[in-house]
Each structure stands twice: as structure tokens, then as C-alpha cells.
UniProtKB/TrEMBL annotation, chains A, B, C:
InterPro entries: Amidohydro-rel, Metal_Hydrolase. It comes from Streptomyces spinosisporus. Coiled coil: none annotated. This is Amidohydrolase. Residues 144-371 form the Amidohydrolase-related domain.
Length: 375, 375, 375
């Protein structure tokens, strides 16, 4: 198999961005909904997709099924084993040592970070989603004039809780990145808060999104940014991270900025990571959706010019425990094969390859978030 | 060769978007013009390009020539056999069972759908190009105040003809997709029709293009949209289909939307197909221009996250019969090798691979257009 | 190794866009700064990147080191040999017969074109960077009312010097390509010159950048345009060359336009080269940054639809002589393997492959710039 693949297979990963797993049993409809970024479409099964094929191929055997077992058998066996056992098997198989859990997206009832870590035998930290904090501040009935201070104070309280290691923004979903990069003035924030208060709904005002991003800059913690791939709430062309260039210049490296997912803009993200000291990237979410059959191709593009201290691992697993396993597998094989083949072609020395694997799989994240190594 | 390649080679394709073939004999200059999206350039032969190389390699043998025969020999033999025989050979070799013919682009005198089907031994349907209908309405001297109703009525008449199975828009060429997604009001349409009437020329007013797209929504028929690659009348960055996101939300799945060509935005198109129930894609036109040497690479990207019910085949052949053969060959080989290799790597089960091949090559199109299977 | 690779290895390249080499000895910090588009980042070595790995692998042996020797050994040996010998070895190894040197970017003291050609045993020509000319005109204290004429006269003087074969613009850096494509009126130029005179600083006024591009059109010389990849002064999404489409239509083929670097927009650049007679492209700078391990993948994309008379070679080497060698190596291997494999797969005839290799490596550039062949 080769030394690099072996080393990556043995490495406890640091999954710097993931979510929880749905705790209870899952109907076929619910399972199919959870494995797609699309939705429930009559007559089109989510299993008939790259991710569906990958689940049957790579997750089935962990449930004692033959490879490629049909969806009905897969789900029957899943139900038979029960959610707790299924989750335990996939989380253990993922070989994840550290989880940084974004707790801010939970339309479903999810496992807590502690439950997650427990099932996997790892350690969990928390990432605070800033839009949730802002919306909670608004929901609590803050006066628009006080919104700016109240949001800042709420964020500071949220990140002061034990185990919080970073913050996250879904600005890509709310406005896209083609925003005025400048810090908004207090008067602008107040005016926008008034308008938001009158309008209601989720935080999607461009001024308040900018204020949120600049509040993150002041915090000093690593900031995760959703970029690229997601559900149909994204306007993809506005989620190209290179629209952040002026903002990255203005913020001047105050905080690490971690570009999540990135596909189909992995090259654009790599460019930013290559020219801005504070920028890092991963291709989480993408890897399990394209599956092991294409994970390497995505990683090849993501690594074309990315400095080796700048690539991180994340699963972005949400809902089904399968995605922890699939994400980890696709990452280990994709990166492992890429590095191994470069060693075989004598384009890369073996010690270098081993170092790059360890950096991307664990050490880069430990360094950025200031975490101890996995136990 | 493998079971998937064999199955794809034997499958009568449904070519859901193509044009006609020039009926008469072709001079070298004319032939060279027809095989490029560029034009006639002194000192640069169209044969010195990926598509030119592919024609000599894959079409020459069907004219009894050795592979890679020089252009002059190729064209001499082509003339010797005569257009009728040449067209018959390439159309038969394409193994196409069903053609959906866009009859709206014909700067050259082309075969009719019936002649095409006849030469290939298949069945032909028609796709109505909406810009042509609009321009015919204007040319007939409609009063601007009556344009909206007249266009709607003309489209309804056009699609009521026997054999019409869908409509097409070249909005990508006329305005690009970065349009206001909302349905324009009757007053806006009338005002724009007045301005167009005064100005003349082709339909390129943004309000009237929006009106055209919303008229298509009301029809209920599948709508083909040119996206990405084309001649230099395109502003490529405005033909990125993700600019359609808001419009896709507003139209709410009323009609199937088929993204044509897509390159270099095949990943963006795949994203839309993965997150919008009503979106489908193909990589027609692209496949014969890149040739069999790169068709697989394009298909690999197009399929990274595309649900397997969402990929269709089209040749987008225009003018020369070679492109029916080349498009079909590039598709069969590209998809066949992709699937076969995944089966060989045990990433995909053989029955799944065979099903995906059949879906993409024929059944997805039959389903979307509501057609009977090829006879 | 194969006939195509052999032919490419023996071909004296025409490097149609490069810079000079820093003449003196280089500290580790300086060397690390010169091999990245990023900068000096504490704790992150530039050697820990694709280009760093490629330097150790492919340049070390030319300094008598084993492959993959560590950075400290590499730099020690480099210092031991001395800059003159190091430069001579890499320049000779590059096998470059002709250099077209952009002399307009020189934050460091660089070798002159003549010194460069001397070290390589080749011939050097000069490319005039238009922004420098404009800024020199302004620095000389021209009256804003006279700026338009003064700039035009200065450019004409600059290109009249012996050895000048083309001009270059970094409009991508200054404004991006999403500009009004029209030629600005004299009054607009004067107004903009007044504003620039009052404001000072580098030339980044959109009207003056347009004026600069139109001045180039009037000159009749080939115009090189930076597109895509560069340092963090770029707004990448505005450096997509398809934004030039309207300008390319308006200028109507008056001059050859050479798109440099292009990554990650090599497909967009290829599209322009395929549909505009006057457009050419290279993937210089990109090739040594991604290294030989990925050069072929980039070239595969760049060549998907590019007519074979439209691809040129450039190193875009700057600062360190290593990049002349690496760029040439990555080009020869990447293109050589691509062509050789297509010959082996019988997708391309050998004589065609040899012709394409020669065109891309030398003849296309000789033709565009009207140069005699390398001696």
C-alpha cells in the first residue's frame, strides 16, 4: 500500500469543521434527505448519486454488508443495528482524534460535541456560528440602537465558554462575498439594525454581515468561512472566496481565516492561501459528496499551489455518521495516493511526503487553533 | 473492452440537442469554418486544433481513409463520396435513436429533422428556439403594445405543432444570465417592446429576454438553455449558469431546465443539477471540440456531484455530419471508460454502472421529454 | 522516453515572457521571498510548498546535490558556487534560445536582457511595460492636459529602441478587466490625468488604464496581458480574461493579444484563443509554481480547445535562475507526456505531435513577434 498511505491511515485526524449526528432512527426518506444537498425529489433517489454510491460501497461493509448492497438492504441493516451502534461504528472507523464542532446549524436534533467525542473516543471542541448569536440577540428583543454592542458582548460571552476554539460565518449564504470590505461605522450598524428589526427574518443585511465579520476580526479567534459548495440557498458565483481579497487586505492578518469546502473554487482558495499569510483551506463536504473516486482529483487541484502548512482536514459531516467515515476515508486515500505517487515518481522525498500528510491531517489544525495533540 | 463500454456502444442514444447538417458539398474553406467556433483565419487551419485532429483520427476511417490522413486527403475523399453518402455514414455510425433538433439556428441550409432521422434510421423531434419566434413576431410588424400577447400566442402555436418536445433559449448570448430574475410586468414588456421596435435588430433587451424565459415557464415544456462554450458572441463570465439561481428559485420547478454545453462551468452546472430538482445538464458541443482525448476528463468533472438521473447526452452537432459521430463516440468512450474503471476499482457495482450508462445515454432524456423509447 | 519528449528536450525554446535574475548572492530569507508569490511568513518556509519541493528535486542535482536535499544544504551549495555559476547552470539547462524580457518590473537589481542571453547562450529581446512608461511620464512632471500625447510619444520612443518586440500591461493588477471597453475620449483622458496628478501614486485610474490599452492597439505590436495568477495585489475574479471580450471585439484584431499565466482561468483563456483570431495564451509562472507534478494537468486544460498555433511558452521567471530551468522542464515534460501519450493511444499522429511541440515551444512565438529562429 505504501508508507504514506499507511501513515495517513494510522494518523488520528483533526476534523476542524463538523456538525453533529442525528441521534434517533432514520426513515428512508429522512436518510435520503440527509445525504444530499438537494432535497426530497419524487422519483429520484439520493442513492443514485456519487455520494449514494460511495455510501453503499464504503459504509455497507462496516455494517457487515457486502459492498454495493442495495439501498433497502443498507437501510434495513442500519435500522437493525440501531443508531447508537451505527454511529459508534462509523465514528470509530473515521479515526478522528479531535473534532471542532460547529454547533450553530441544527434543524435536526443532533448529538452534542461531547456525545460525538465519546462515540469516537476523541476530544471535541466547539466553534460558534456568529449568525446564530446575532439572531439570538435580535430574538431577545434588543433595541436596534444597542444592537452593535449587544452582539459584540454576546459573541464575547459565547466564545468565553470552555472548549470554544473558533467562530464561523455563513456570510456566503446570506449576502455572498461581494460586499463592501470596510468596517461599517456605528451609525451604519444602528441604521441597519433598525431596518432589520422592522423587517425581521434571518440576518442577511449587508451592513450587519460586514459588522459580523469585523466583530470576528476583533475577537482574535480563527474564523471559519463557508465558501463554495452548499445547498441551493447559495448563489455560487458570489461564494467565490477571491471576492474576499480586499477584506483580507484590510483585516491585515489579525486572525486566521479558514476557507471551508471551496469546491468548485478550490484553485481560487489555494491562490488566497498562497498569497495571504492568514488564509487556510480545506475541501470538507466536497470529499464525501464526490466520493473516494474523485477525492484525489479535487485534492490535486487544491494543492497545486497551496503551501503545505495551509491545507486542513475537515469532514463537514452533518446528520449521518456515515459522512465522518466517508470524509476521512476520501481524505486519507486521496491525499495518500497523491503523495505516494509523487514519491514513486521521485517528485517528492518520502520524509517530505510523510510530513505533509501529518500536517494536513492534524498538525496544521492543531497549530491554527492552538490545540494540544490528540491523546 | 469491458461490459460497460460494450453496453454503451450498443445503446441507441437519445441526442436531446442537435441541429441539422449542411446538405450540399463543402469547400475546404466552408468545412474549416463549420468545424470551429472561431472563424476563417488566414494562415491558421481549423484542422490544427483538437477537433481537427479528432476528425482526422476518428472520422477518416469511416470514409475508408487511414487514421490521421491529412486534411487535403480527407476532404478529397469526402467530396468523392458525396454529401449524401458521407452524412449517411456518420449519422449511422453515431448510433443515435432519437434526435431532438433545434431548428432555430440556420445561417446555412440544413437538413430537416425528418431528413436527419431518415439518414440515421432514427426518430426526430423538434425543439423551438424562442428568440426566433420573438424576432419573427417583431418582423411581422406587431404593434409594441401587443408584443407580449403576440409572442405568447406565437410560441403556443409553435409548440403545438406535431413533434415539438421542448423549447430553447439563447439568453446566454443575448444578455447573459446576470438578469433581474423576476417576471417583468406587462407595462415593462410594452415599454421594452417599444424601444426594441424603434431600435430594431435581434432580441437582446433584458426585459424582453426575461419575458421570454418566463413565457417558457408558463408553457410547461422542458427548456433548453445554452450555457458556457460557444462562439465569440458569448460573454463567457455572464454565461455561468449559477447566475440563474434566483430565477430557478422563483420559477419553482415549474419546468425542467436543461443546461447545455456548460464547459468551462460543468462543475457549476453540476451544482445546480444537484440542488434544484428541475435542473439537468449535458456537455454537448464540448465533447467533440475537446475530442475523445479529453472527453472523459470533462465528464469526470461534470459527474462529480451530479445525480445520475440528471446527466443527458447531446451532440449539439451542427453543419457537418462528422460531429454526430464524434460527439457520440466521445460520450460513449468517455463515460464508458469512467464507469468501467470505477467498476474495476470496485468503487461502483457493475449493475449500477450499466444503469447509469443507460440513464445518461437515453433514459433520462426520454423521461424529461416524455418520449417513447427508441424503436 | 519517446520521440516527442526527445524532440521537445532538444528544442531551443522561445521564452516569450520573462524577467531578469537577481545578480548577487541571496540570503535564505531573500531566496524564500523570491520563490513565492506570497511573502515572508514567520514559521512557514517557502520551501514547504509545491514550488519549494520542485526546486529541491529538479534544481538541486544541477548544483551537484542529491535530489530532495534539504533547503539549508541547497542554499549552502548555492552560495558556495556563487551567483554567476548558479545562474549560468540554470540558464544553460533551460535550453532557451530566445528570451523576450519584460524589463518593467524590477524592485530588485536584475540582470539585463543582454546579460541573460549571454548566460544562456541565446538571444534576448525586450518587452516594454506600459504602466512604467505612463508613470515615468507622470513623474517627469507632465501637464495633465498634455498627458495623453506625452504618453503616446513616450511609448513610441520606448518601442523604437532596438530589440523591442512587444509591449505589456498589468491592467489586471491595476483595475481588473471589467472595464468599459471603449476608447476613452481625449477629454476623459485629460480629466483623469488631472485627477491622477492631484492624487499621485501608481497608474490605477480606469480611464487611464483604458487609454493605455488603446494606445497599445494603435502601436501595432503584440500586447502581453497579465491574467490570473499573481501576488495578492490581484483581485482574481477581475483578472478572468473573458472580461476582455467586448474590448477584443472593439479592437478587431488590430494586434496580437497574448494572455499570460491564465491559471486558474486557463480554460477561459483557451476559449478566447479559440474564438478570437488575435488571441494567444501561455501558462507561464503557473508551470513552475505547480511544478512538474501538475504541469501536465494544467496544460491538458489549457489545450482542451486551443488551436495549436495559439499556445506559447513562457517561463515568467523572475529573480532566481532556478525558474528558467523549472519552467522549461515543466513545459517540456508536461507537453511532451501529454502529446506522447496521445500518440501512444493513437489519438494523434506522431508527425502532428512533433509539429505541435515545435509550434508551442518556439515557432508560434517567432511568428507572433516576427522573430528569426534561434541561432
Amino acid at each position: 500500500m505504501g508508507a504514506v498511505r499507511e501513515a495517513l491511515d494510522a494518523l488520528p485526524l483533526v476534523d476542524h469543521h463538523c456538525h453533529g449526528v442525528v441521534g434517533g432512527e432514520l426513515s428512508r426518506e429522512y436518510f435520503e434527505e440527509l445525504i444530499t444537498e438537494g432535497g426530497s425529489w419524487p422519483g429520484i433517489s439520493s442513492f443514485d448519486s456519487p455520494v449514494g454510491v460511495a455510501v453503499r460501497r464504503h459504509c455497507g461493509p462496516l455494517l457487515d454488508l457486502p459492498r454495493h448492497a442495495p439501498p433497502a438492504e443498507y437501510l434495513a441493516r442500519r435500522a437493525e443495528l440501531g443508531a447508537r451502534e451505527v454511529n459508534r461504528r462509523f465514528l470509530a472507523a473515521s479515526g478522528t482524534g479531535v473534532f471542532c464542532v460547529d454547533t450553530g446549524y441544527a434543524p435536526d436534533r443532533l448529538t452534542t460535541p461531547a456525545e460525538l467525542a465519546d462515540a469516537a473516543g476523541g476530544t471535541a471542541y466547539e466553534v460558534v456560528r456568529l449568525e446564530n448569536v446575532a439572531e439570538a440577540v435580535a430574538a431577545a428583543g434588543v433595541e436596534p440602537d444597542a444592537y452593535g454592542d449587544a452582539f459584540r458582548a454576546a459573541v464575547q460571552r459565547a466564545v468565553a465558554r470552555p472548549g470554544v476554539v473558533g467562530v464561523k460565518s455563513v456570510a456566503a449564504y446570506r449576502t455572498g462575498f461581494d460586499l463592501d470590505p470596510a468596517r461599517p461605522s456605528p451609525a451604519e450598524v444602528t441604521a441597519a439594525a433598525h431596518a432589520w428589526s422592522a423587517r425581521g427574518g434571518r440576518l442577511d443585511d449587508p451592513v450587519l454581515v460586514r459588522h459580523l465579520l469585523w466583530t470576528a476580526v476583533d475577537l482574535g479567534l480563527p474564523l471559519q468561512l463557508h465558501t463554495g459548495f452548499g445547498d441551493n440557498d447559495i448563489r455560487m458565483h458570489r461564494a467565490d472566496p477571491t471576492h474576499l481579497t480586499d477584506w483580507l487586505h484590510l483585516t491585515g492578518g489579525a486572525i486566521p481565516v479558514l476557507l471551508l469546502h471551496c469546491w468548485p473554487y478550490q484553485r481560487q482558495a489555494a491562490y488566497l492561501a498562497a498569497v495571504f499569510e492568514q488564509v487556510y483551506l480545506d475541501v470538507g463536504l466536497t470529499l464525501h459528496h464526490v466520493g473516494p473516486a474523485r477525492a484525489r482529483a479535487i485534492l490535486e487541484e487544491a494543492l497545486e499551489i497551496t503551501p503545505f502548512r495551509k491545507l486542513l482536514y475537515s469532514s463537514d459531516a452533518y446528520g449521518v455518521a456515515e459522512f465522518y467515515h466517508l470524509g476521512a476515508l476520501a481524505f486519507r486515500r486521496g491525499l495518500g495516493d497523491l503523495l505516494q505517487d509523487r514519491v514513486a515518481a521521485d517528485e517528492l522525498g518520502l520524509p517530505d511526503a510523510l510530513r505533509i500528510a501529518e500536517w494536513a491531517g492534524a498538525h496544521n489544525a492543531l497549530r491554527v487553533y492552538g490545540l494540544p495533540g490528540p491523546s
